[in-house]
UniProtKB/TrEMBL annotation:
<dbReference type="InterPro" id="IPR015947">
    <property type="entry name" value="PUA-like_sf"/>
</dbReference>
<dbReference type="InterPro" id="IPR019614">
    <property type="entry name" value="SAM-dep_methyl-trfase"/>
</dbReference>
<dbReference type="InterPro" id="IPR041532">
    <property type="entry name" value="RlmI-like_PUA"/>
</dbReference>
<dbReference type="InterPro" id="IPR036974">
    <property type="entry name" value="PUA_sf"/>
</dbReference>
<dbReference type="GO" id="GO:0016434">
    <property type="term" value="F:rRNA (cytosine) methyltransferase activity"/>
</dbReference>
<protein>
    <recommendedName>
        <fullName>Ribosomal RNA large subunit methyltransferase I</fullName>
        <ecNumber>2.1.1.191</ecNumber>
    </recommendedName>
</protein>
<feature type="domain" description="PUA">
    <location>
        <begin position="3"/>
        <end position="88"/>
    </location>
</feature>
<dbReference type="Pfam" id="PF17785">
    <property type="entry name" value="PUA_3"/>
</dbReference>
<dbReference type="InterPro" id="IPR023542">
    <property type="entry name" value="RLMI"/>
</dbReference>
<dbReference type="InterPro" id="IPR029063">
    <property type="entry name" value="SAM-dependent_MTases_sf"/>
</dbReference>
<comment type="similarity">
    <text>Belongs to the methyltransferase superfamily. RlmI family.</text>
</comment>
<dbReference type="Pfam" id="PF10672">
    <property type="entry name" value="Methyltrans_SAM"/>
</dbReference>
<keyword id="KW-0698">rRNA processing</keyword>
<keyword id="KW-0489">Methyltransferase</keyword>
<keyword id="KW-0694">RNA-binding</keyword>
<comment type="function">
    <text>Specifically methylates the cytosine at position 1962 (m5C1962) of 23S rRNA.</text>
</comment>
<dbReference type="GO" id="GO:0005737">
    <property type="term" value="C:cytoplasm"/>
</dbReference>
Length: 397
């Protein structure tokens, strides 16, 4: 018999709405052993069964729910079922001849809290970020190989959130012989993914739809791509007919890969420029020199790790957007993003609008951009929506 978690009175509402988290403050009692990753049954204060999840003795999120069905056991068949459902959805979303890299498992939104799997052609990059995911790693890897035979599996569980779960970082080959770099197709473009050292699992798959939007807006534009990473926004812009693209990033290896991407896709290398510099400093320099562009892309890293840092992060977003707006020619476009899940969409819009006011300019929002379709948001877990983007026309007052 599994251990039992009993909730305090009136702390069952979110679980009845199938939200997948139980916080430490909601737990009245643990009956039985509560080892890291153990499967526990969760009951309300009256003794009604609510669901089954993974116990984490060190995390503020004390239980991450696996299932709300009493008949469902957390066994090999469970992981196979969840992962097959998720894979079938992605198969409907993409033509593998055009796009063969996608997020296969988006953790809670695919019913597998703490599990992220990105598929890059025949290489699966795995992140296990919760005690429950870690406990069942063998079942998850087995299901990958069962559903996608011949897939090489590499692990990138090197994210700080594992510490909150009492877990050490883990990276390396799990099965097969994955190459450390793999070339994939995205909307017909060739992209090199560094699975060993690249950001996240090697690449930002969540910006696929936004990159396609950038191509749509880039015709005849001088484009400034800030936090350019490996320059894929710039490749899309060049493909869309950009006059020039300037990539700004602090990482020389990322800029080297950006240069490779232009050549790999047969794009005009004379139109591409590379600046190794801190984006904040570079934007200030452009402002001092009164240098402007027809389109500015701002895709900064996550500024917010917890609710306490929201105010500080808001200042950072305002600062970067203020100078980003300064860098847009009259009548040009700003594509600006926040990948911070704790940043509400309405607050992000307000920050960008306030930045425009401080810059003495007017923005007109013409489109909203979101995380790509392979990063779904399950209805009971709105926290799964994290990537917000705005396309703004910028004009002088």
């Amino acid at each position: 018999m599994s251990s039992q978690v009993i909730l305090h009175p009136n702390r069952d509402k979110s679980l009845r709405r199938r939200h997948p988290w139980v916080f430490e403050s909601a737990v009245a009692e643990l009956k039985g052993r509560g080892r890291s990753g153990d499967t526990v049954d969760v009951f309300d204060s009256e003794g009604d069964w609510l669901g089954r999840g993974a116990y984490s003795p060190t995390s503020q999120i004390r239980v991450r729910m696996w299932t709300f069905s009493k008949e469902e056991s957390i066994d090999n068949a469970f992981f196979l079922r969840r992962m097959e459902i998720a894979l079938n959805l992605r198969m409907r979303l993409f033509d593998p001849e055009v796009t063969n890299a996608f997020r296969w498992i988006a953790s809670e939104s695919d019913g597998l809290p703490g599990v992220t799997i990105d598929l890059y052609d025949n290489v699966a990059v795995l992140q296990l970020l919760s005690a429950g995911a870690e406990k069942h790693r063998d079942k998850i890897v087995w299901a990958i190989n069962k559903l996608k035979p011949g897939t090489h599996v590499y692990e990138r569980s090197d994210v700080d959130v594992r510490k909150k779960e009492g877990l050490e970082p883990v990276t390396g080959v799990v099965s097969g012989e994955p190459p450390m770099q793999v070339t994939v197709k995205e909307n017909g473009l060739s992209i090199i993914v560094d699975i060993e050292n690249g950001h996240k699992t090697g690449f930002y798959l969540d910006q696929r739809d936004s990159r396609a939007a950038a191509a749509h807006y880039a015709k005849d534009a001088d484009v400034l791509n800030c936090f350019s990473y490996t320059g894929t926004f710039s490749c899309y812009a060049l493909q869309g007919g950009a006059k020039s693209v300037t990539n700004v990033d602090v990482s020389q290896p990322a800029l080297d890969l950006a240069k490779q991407h232009v050549a790999l896709n047969g794009l005009d290398e004379t139109k591409s420029h590379y600046v190794k510099k801190d984006v904040f400093k570079q934007l200030r320099e452009y402002h001092e020199r009164k240098e402007q562009f027809d389109m500015v892309i701002l895709d900064p890293p996550k500024f917010i790790d917890n609710k306490a840092s929201l105010t500080r992060a808001a200042r950072g977003y305002k600062d970067i957007n203020l100078y980003g707006i300064h860098a847009v020619r009259n009548g040009g476009l700003l594509l600006t993003f926040s990948c911070s899940g704790l940043m509400p969409a309405d607050l992000f819009q307000k920050i960008v609008a306030d930045a425009a006011l401080d810059a003495g300019r007017t923005i007109k929002i013409i489109a909203r951009l979101n995380q790509a379709t392979d990063h779904p948001v399950i209805g009971s877990y709105p926290e799964g929506y994290y990537l917000k983007g705005l396309v703004c026309e910028v004009t002088d007052l």
